[in-house]
Amino acid sequence: MSAPASPKTTGLFSAIVIVASLGYFVDIYDLILFSIVRVDSLNELGITAKDAVTNQGLYLINMQMGGMLLGGVLWGILGDKRGRLSVLFGSILLYSLANLANGFVQTIDQYAWLRLIAGIGLAGELGAGITLVAETLPKEKRGYGTMIVATVGVSGAMLAYWVGARFGWRNAYFVGGGLGLALLALRVGVYESGMFEQTKKSDVERGNFLALFTNRRRLARYAKCLLIGVPLWFVVGILITLAPEFSTAMGITGPVTAGLGVFWCYFGLVFGDFASGTLSQVLRSRNRALQLFLVFCGVMVGVYLFAVHGASPTVFYAVCFVLGISVGFWALFVTVAAEQFGTNLRATVATTAPNFARGSVVLLVPLFQALRGPLGLIGSAALLGAGSLLIAFWAVSSLPESFGKDLDYVEQDEA
């Protein structure tokens, strides 16, 4: 069912694109900050044994990612019921306050609960921003708009590394919270999606999360969208976050820090997101661009795990950089998720899909730990990486192409 009038569109460098980009910049800063300050923060809280740092770090990552699973559903439903803007700014407010509080933690329990709350807040910004950009840009420019959001956004990880290294982990959390609160001042000039406003005037049901499970074809589309993003979080959540542990197992000739691993990976992501978004526009195909990047990612996971044994830290970080480029299909993945569904469920999907993909770390970590005994660190990572990449490639290959698709429609048969 199409809306009776064409909704308002905007330019590629409009206030909407700028605010969504800066919002994702702060989102990524706060999202990845724990991976950067994990060792220093845990050491200061009295956890110094190597195994304890690894285990408590994984516990805190799981709490953050668990919060993102909860937040993905919450913000996604609100985005379709109340609007994209309310989610965009509400999520920024929540994760900013949580990260300010994170700078004051004194115990692991406090740290864990605040990472949970921060995770809930972090879950909303990207999906709301991508949905808003996709619905307000002309369809021939959508890919460029979401590319800008991602390219600007992922560079927030580099600022997180610089601030964490220069000013300490507590101040890094304070800076992240302050940046988010400052961003709320940019609300002027950002307007709600015209497609959403038109749908709100109709009697169609909006934001019914369960409607994704009541239709077999719709559920299949949704599940495939979720699976596409899992390889990126396998790379970031396991290979990069545990870079010190992997470098030791590989016999790297000097010390490797998780902070620098994250920095170089996300530096690569900046280029990867730019390249994947541009490639999808040049090829006029989201699916072909995703397939190429998944193959590239598979090659780089193999290089990371098997080709740098005994190398220098410089070579190791260079591989982290190229590995980051290879998983630079994140915004393209979220764009595809948004383009696969109608206006009344679009925010729900675009918000839950990336957060369920991020939250896959909650499943990947215990699988990784269970396989680590019989297969070792390298073997368990190789098996998980191969499995997630093959499944993602199948999911992309069986999804309908969405390049140039008219998004001004709603999903029917909600009951």
Automatic annotation (TrEMBL):
Protein's name in the database: MFS transporter
Protein location: Membrane
Listed transmembrane segments: 12-37, 57-78, 85-105, 111-134, 146-165, 171-190, 225-243, 249-271, 292-309, 315-338, 375-396
Keyword Nucleotide-binding: no
Database matches in InterPro entries: MFS, MFS_dom, MFS_trans_sf
Pfam families xrefs: MFS_1
Residues of the Major facilitator superfamily (MFS) profile domain: 16-403
Topological category with respect to the lipid bilayer: Multi-pass membrane protein
Presence of keyword Transferase: no
Keyword field: Membrane, Transmembrane, Transmembrane helix
Main location: membrane
